[in-house]
Amino acid sequence: MPSLAGEARGGSGALSSPRLRPGPAERAGLDPGELKLLVREVRRLPAHWCAGAVVLAGRGPVVAVEEAAGWAVRHRSADEELPEHRWVPMTVGTPFDLASLTKLFTTVAAVQQIERGTLGIDALVGAYVPEFTGAREHGITVRHLLTHTSGLRPELPLYDCPDDEARLAALRTEAPLTAPGDTYLYSDLNMLLMQHVLERLTGRRLDQLIREGITRPLGMTHTGFGPCAFAAATEDQRKPWAKLDRGMVRGTVHDENAHALGGVAGHAGLFSTAHDLAVFCRTLLNGGAYGTARILGPDFVDLMLAAPGLGFRVDQPWFMGELAGAGAAGHTGFTGTSLVIDRATDAFLVLLANTVHPRRTRPDSTPRAAAATRLARAARARA
After folding, report:
1. Which of 35, 298, 349, 380 registers the highest number of CB atoms within 10 A of its CB?
2. CB contact set of 31 (below 8 Å; sequence gap of 6+)
């Protein structure tokens, strides 16, 4: 049996990297005026963008902002509010359905195997899972999956398949729409295939790989695949706006394919809190280390975060605002989640919101970009 991906390296004799601690803006090297504006703007978001939100921002090991606003649960259904005494306030410790932020953890699990030499970044997917005939016949590589250049379509309606065997058969035979390597096309299927590669390679389920290789060594005790009690509610899933008829979703994964796959999927399914995600951000900004744990070496963090990015998006102003431009990396999730790390300023931003509660609306990342811009200006003002 292969060894665990990304076991904690280090121990009592290892050099320790600073752990997160709360502190004032000045200690973080951030402008307090800009951070006050950031907090004020996030507190206003429940009036027009989401039911509730949590924002956490900092620089170096200092968390300078950690605020909650609005409601984790407010609606019984898409067209009916709960009685006001049953509304659940958002807190800084509220867990969220991370949606596509899950892809970042799948990516780290893959890069851990690349670091170990057990996975080749330019190896053919078909070399690991030969029964995936679509990927094998079209020459899709691990790099294609991690950079969303496989040509696979954005989504496959696995939730419409009658059983797990039919879902797996559909995924195995799926062929790309364009030649691999030619075009960026964001696709959930990339991380679903990556999941199968990792599970075949290691003999372990993805949830085990992420727990043993990432969350446990980093002390991320509030991060894991669902179900997750007390999570912020997401959507009243009903047709025609949703793809399944599930009613109000809270504590189980929102994504329909991840739900159909049992809640553990390479593209969606993780739940976490803002503080746990800040630990994840700090780990990457520290070159793969946090406290006495090391989950990746610095060169492999560079491989993952350097443009165009493996799993991570790099320098995307549409959700990174003015943080974009000098190698900022991050991701967004459909349920309203996002994170950004900026190695140029050593700053990080986690913004979690339940924008689909009580039902999905037109996607809008303007508030994400605005929050990131406030953080960028706070860092520049104290440079």
Report:
1. 349
2. 25, 377, 378, 379, 381, 382
CA separation for the pair 332, 297 (Å, rounded): 25
Tell me how far the alpha carbon of residue 123 is from its chain's centroid. 25
- Predicted structure pTM score: 0.96
Tokens representing residue 353 in the block: 């919101």
* pLDDT tens readout for residues 188-199: 999 999 999 999
Between CA 365 and CA 369, with CA 366 as vertex, the angle to 5 degrees is: 90
Q: Give yes or no for residue 4 having a pLDDT over 50.
A: no
What is the rounded CA–CA span in Å between residue 93 and residue 274? 7
Q: Is the dihedral of CA 364, 239, 106, 69 positive or negative?
A: positive
Count, in order, helices (H) and strands (E) of the chain: 15, 17
Helix (H) or strand (E) holding 350: strand 347-353
Element of type H or E holding 26: helix 25-28
The pair of three-digit structure tokens given for residue 199, joined into one six-digit string: 């599970």
305 within 8 A of 295, measured Cβ to Cβ: no
- Residue 253 is which amino acid? V
Residue 369's Cβ-side half-sphere holds a number of Cα atoms within 13 Å equal to 12
Asked whether the beta carbons of 105 and 146 are under 8 A apart, the reply is no
Q: What is the Cα–Cα distance from 74 to 167, expressed in whole angstroms?
A: 34
Q: Are strands 62-73 and 80-81 parallel, antiparallel or unpaired?
A: unpaired
Domains assigned to the chain: 27-381 (3.40.710.10)
